[in-house]
């Protein structure tokens, strides 16, 4: 099986060579960006690519034509999904050959179904980004990819393609005890190199099963573990590393753009994909930069999509920058990526509560199978709790988290048999019902 992986790797790169080494060249370009000795040099390197994007937009779209006299990126307006949807024809750059662009759609799990176009150049860059960041986590092209997500019909690969690409399409909806038992047995019999890519909530189900069966660390030859789409708690990361003997990194990406950032192993920081994007952190209310270190809106400019320009695109997510001169060549990194704006938790004074306070303290209560915190009003919060038997530490649990929410907070518990998944197969830990 290991020979098969090597052959897959060689075949992949041989095919790329026949196509002019487009992926190899892009990967080398991405690497060269991160090898630069300062962020200023990276900005200088990106400047002509950014200017080409902005010039194409102002010359070839109705929406941006009034910005022809631009001096800086900040001269352009901030847009979001709704603005792009409502001005779709005016924002798109018409392609001389329709085969040069393809549509990309999101499922609308956040309430806004969304479609854009991407050029072939953008598609190639996305693939290069994926290979580069997967490799930085320990994954090699040709290894078996244990891809754990909701496999809706429009995502699922046909079995021949999946076999050729060595992708094991594991569906989160199948994660029952009997299925997990057979999966683990199969992984232990297969000694070929493998990598995990999946939702943290799905990893949590795997780990809960292994906890319940008093499992020892498993010998599955796992070379990489990447989490995606949901915040990764320290508890799940620690358990996955224990059972599969490899550190877990969290990836921040979206369908419409690609890989935006990925966690540096053994740290809380995220390397931002400055090679393919320009990232801004803007104030929660105004289109001005957030203060250094404060949580704000993640606004992205996609340097490589000349079909539907994504210029100062408000991703709907929030995060904060950190700059460590001794790490990552002093490039700004994400200190945190906190998830959707609609899921931001606020205390009784209206201040944003870092959601990782919730995620990273759940290890204190291992008897809980699942939890979800719902903010009902400015002062009212409910924890939905799924656990086996009686939760005898309920009062301690509620008082602990009340300390972060406010002493005048009203915090209650509601017991449920299951916290359902979203249509996307993900599970929210925080839900804010306030306006």
UniProtKB/TrEMBL annotation:
InterPro entries, sorted: ANL_N_sf, CapK_Type1_Caps_Biosynth
Superkingdom, natural source: Bacteria
GO terms assigned for molecular function: ligase activity
Keyword Ligase: yes
The keyword Ligase is annotated on this UniProt entry: yes
Keyword line: Ligase
Protein name according to UniProt: Phenylacetate-CoA ligase
Organism: Arenibacter algicola
Taxonomic lineage from the root: Bacteria, Pseudomonadati, Bacteroidota, Flavobacteriia, Flavobacteriales
């Amino acid at each position: 099986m290991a020979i098969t992986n090597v052959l897959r790797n060689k075949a992949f790169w041989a095919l790329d060579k026949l196509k002019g080494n487009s992926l190899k060249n892009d990967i080398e370009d991405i690497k060269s960006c991160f090898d630069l000795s300062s962020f200023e040099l990276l900005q200088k390197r990106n400047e002509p690519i950014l200017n080409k994007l902005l010039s194409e937009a102002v010359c070839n779209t109705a929406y941006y034509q009034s910005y022809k006299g631009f001096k800086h990126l900040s001269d352009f307006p901030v847009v979001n999904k709704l603005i792009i949807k409502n001005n779709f024809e005016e924002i798109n750059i018409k392609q001389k050959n329709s085969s040069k662009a393809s549509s990309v759609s999101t499922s609308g799990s956040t309430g806004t179904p969304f479609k854009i176009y991407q050029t072939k150049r953008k598609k190639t860059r996305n693939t290069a980004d994926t290979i580069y960041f997967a490799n930085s986590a320990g994954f090699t092209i040709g290894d078996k990819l244990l891809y754990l997500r909701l496999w809706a019909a429009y995502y699922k690969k046909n079995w021949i393609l999946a076999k050729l690409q060595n992708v094991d399409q594991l569906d989160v909806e199948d994660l029952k005890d009997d299925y997990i038992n057979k999966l683990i047995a199969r992984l232990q019999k297969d000694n070929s190199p493998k990598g995990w890519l999946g939702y943290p909530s799905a990893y949590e189900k795997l780990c809960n099963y292994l906890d319940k069966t008093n499992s020892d660390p498993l010998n599955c030859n796992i070379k990489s573990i990447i989490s995606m789409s949901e915040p990764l708690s320290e508890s799940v990361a620690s358990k996955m590393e224990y059972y599969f003997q490899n550190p877990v990194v969290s990836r921040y990406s979206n369908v419409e753009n690609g890989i935006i950032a990925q966690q540096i192993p053994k740290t809380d920081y995220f390397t931002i994909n400055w090679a393919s994007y320009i990232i801004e952190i803007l104030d929660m209310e105004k289109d001005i930069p957030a203060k250094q270190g404060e949580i704000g809106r993640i606004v992205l400019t996609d340097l490589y999509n000349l079909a539907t320009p994504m210029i100062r695109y408000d991703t709907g997510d929030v995060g904060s920058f950190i700059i460590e001169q001794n790490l990552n060549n002093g490039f700004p990194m994400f200190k945190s990526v906190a998830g959707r704006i609609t899921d931001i938790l606020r205390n009784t004074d209206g201040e944003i509560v870092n959601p990782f306070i919730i995620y990273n303290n759940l290890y204190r209560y291992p008897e809980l199978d699942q939890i979800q915190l719902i903010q009902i009003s400015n002062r009212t919060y409910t924890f939905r709790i799924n656990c086996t038997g009686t939760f005898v530490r309920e009062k301690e649990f509620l008082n602990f988290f009340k300390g972060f929410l406010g002493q005048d907070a009203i915090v209650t518990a509601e017991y449920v048999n299951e916290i359902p998944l979203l249509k996307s197969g993900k599970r929210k830990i925080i839900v804010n019902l306030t306006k």
